[in-house]
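quick q for whoever's on today - can somebody do inverse folding on this one?? i tried earlier but teh output was garbage lol. tokens:
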């Protein structure tokens, strides 16, 4: 039980992908408090494992690892609420940032490499490439995503096998594991601890200074965690691209008009908080297979030169309702009964304790738009920190983003219809049928054009989803300086994806953990 009032050198809001390595590092020489609004991934050790990827994301219960939200664009999304953050619910791919990203952020190259290695030693592995993943990788090479770069953590044009945070037994290792590096005598981690606001000291003729935070425990009891008088003491926001801008606003730092609307006392008018929020669009093909497929999440990536990443997973589990939706859509396309198309799903999971409901015999091949120009914003919905803010991403507002998607989907189709992948597709299913299958699924709340299955531009716009790599809202150079200190405020930093101007590498988790270190 947390005391009513306590003092720490560092108070970290959010025990996620950045917060855990950050806390472990700071605990080497200071007293650290981590406040995480979610629970522990260790309570049910098999729950975060590979086979439960989609069931965990689709779990809407109050204690789930993922809190769902729908953006104003009509796209379903989720944010992590668990110790370890997004690394507990993601597809596990581990790949470093491109050199350009690191140059932009001005980070020290030697320290960056050392920090990546510190993370990798604990939680990164080389994935096993079985039949389906290998066939698709070879299909991508046939489609021209060259050269074949083999296994590497580095970001290189062409097709490569990347790292994974799943070990050989499909058990997930997360950012929470990095807390094993921490000094246990100098760190406190409180779970189900929701920060309501940051407390500031405002004096005439001196800069506003963070003093601590007010948080509520699971039972609704309030606590005050305050900074020690050490001149280095800081509050550090690591609450993610939604949580960090939301908490800044709830604490009185943000666009003054919006704060006044909710009766929040304005500590500092900062109109750029919540602005420049970007989500990388994802579009995918679901490809049923006549041959059995392995359970696999992302193991390789095609890094194109035109700004698109191609990744894939196979043999994954959906919930029963999702499985029925897929079977129904497929039956309509093939003019078959729903029962016969349901044979595409493998039933018979041996372990009744498992969350697996229905495994699909086939795979998902998806395309992610790199560095979208389209951007949006975040606004408060209310004053409750537990509720999601109002989020708009403005997918495909820029025509350049749409062109990248079209080109990426074409490459994915070419890989599916390559010679290398021929054992894992039905000849009866044309490319148009695969597009039609996706158009008929309840993927989002966006309207469908009649030509969605004929026009790749319409297909991209109508069936857009998230890859959960949204970022921005407290951007570097706009809200924080090069040292991630909040501009105009003392003793307050932000260390997470909300500071990013682009999503690093093909998948950001490696770089978010590196940044925390």
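ok took a stab at it. sequence:
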């Amino acid at each position: 039980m947390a005391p009513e009032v306590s003092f720490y050198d560092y108070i970290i809001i959010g025990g996620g992908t950045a917060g855990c390595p950050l806390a472990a590092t700071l605990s080497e020489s200071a007293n650290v408090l981590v406040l995480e609004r979610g629970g522990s991934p260790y309570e049910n050790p098999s729950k975060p494992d590979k086979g439960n990827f989609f069931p965990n994301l689709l779990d809407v219960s109050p204690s789930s690892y993922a809190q769902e939200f729908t953006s104003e664009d009509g796209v379903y999304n989720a944010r992590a609420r668990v110790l370890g953050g997004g690394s507990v619910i993601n597809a596990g791919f581990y790949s470093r940032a491109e050199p350009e990203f690191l140059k932009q952020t001005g980070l020290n190259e030697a320290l960056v490499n050392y920090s990546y290695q510190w993370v990798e030693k604990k939680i990164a592995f080389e994935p096993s490439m079985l039949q389906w993943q290998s066939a698709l990788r070879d299909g991508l090479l046939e489609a021209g995503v060259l050269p074949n770069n083999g296994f590497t953590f580095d970001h290189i044009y062409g097709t490569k096998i990347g790292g994974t945070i799943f070990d050989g037994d499909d058990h997930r290792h997360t950012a929470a594991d990095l807390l094993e590096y921490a000094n246990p005598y100098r760190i406190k981690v409180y779970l189900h601890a929701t920060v309501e606001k940051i407390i500031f000291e405002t004096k005439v003729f001196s800069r506003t200074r963070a003093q601590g935070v007010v948080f509520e425990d699971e039972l609704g009891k309030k606590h005050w965690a305050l900074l020690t008088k050490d001149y280095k003491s800081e509050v550090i926001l690591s609450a993610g691209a939604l949580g960090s801008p939301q908490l800044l606003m709830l604490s009185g730092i943000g666009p003054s008009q919006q704060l006044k609307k909710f009766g929040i006392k304005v500590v500092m008018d900062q109109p750029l908080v919540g602005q420049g929020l970007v989500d990388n669009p994802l579009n995918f093909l679901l490809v049923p297979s006549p041959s059995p497929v392995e359970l696999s999440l992302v193991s390789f990536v095609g890094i194109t030169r035109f700004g698109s990443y191609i990744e894939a997973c196979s043999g994954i589990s959906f919930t029963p309702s999702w499985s029925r939706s897929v079977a129904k859509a497929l039956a309509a396309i093939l003019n078959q009964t729903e029962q016969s198309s349901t044979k595409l799903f493998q039933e018979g999971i041996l372990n009744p304790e498992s969350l697996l409901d229905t495994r699909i015999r086939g795979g998902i091949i998806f395309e992610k738009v790199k560095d979208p120009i389209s951007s949006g914003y975040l606004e408060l919905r209310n004053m409750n920190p537990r509720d999601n803010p109002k989020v708009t991403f403005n997918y495909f507002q820029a025509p350049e983003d749409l062109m990248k998607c079209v080109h990426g989907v074409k490459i994915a189709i070419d890989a599916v219809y390559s010679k290398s992948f021929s054992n894992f597709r039905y000849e009866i299913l044309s490319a148009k049928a695969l597009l039609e299958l996706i158009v008929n699924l309840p993927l989002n709340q966006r309207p469908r054009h009649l030509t969605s299955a004929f026009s790749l531009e319409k297909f991209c716009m109508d069936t857009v989803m998230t890859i959960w790599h949204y970022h921005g809202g407290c951007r570097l150079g706009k809200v924080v300086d090069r040292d991630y200190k909040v501009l105009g405020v003392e003793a307050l930093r932000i260390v997470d994806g909300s500071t990013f101007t682009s999503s690093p590498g093909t998948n950001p988790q490696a770089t978010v953990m590196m940044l925390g270190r």
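fwiw The first strand starts at residue 5 and ends at 8. also The radius of gyration is 23 Å. so keep that in mind when u check it
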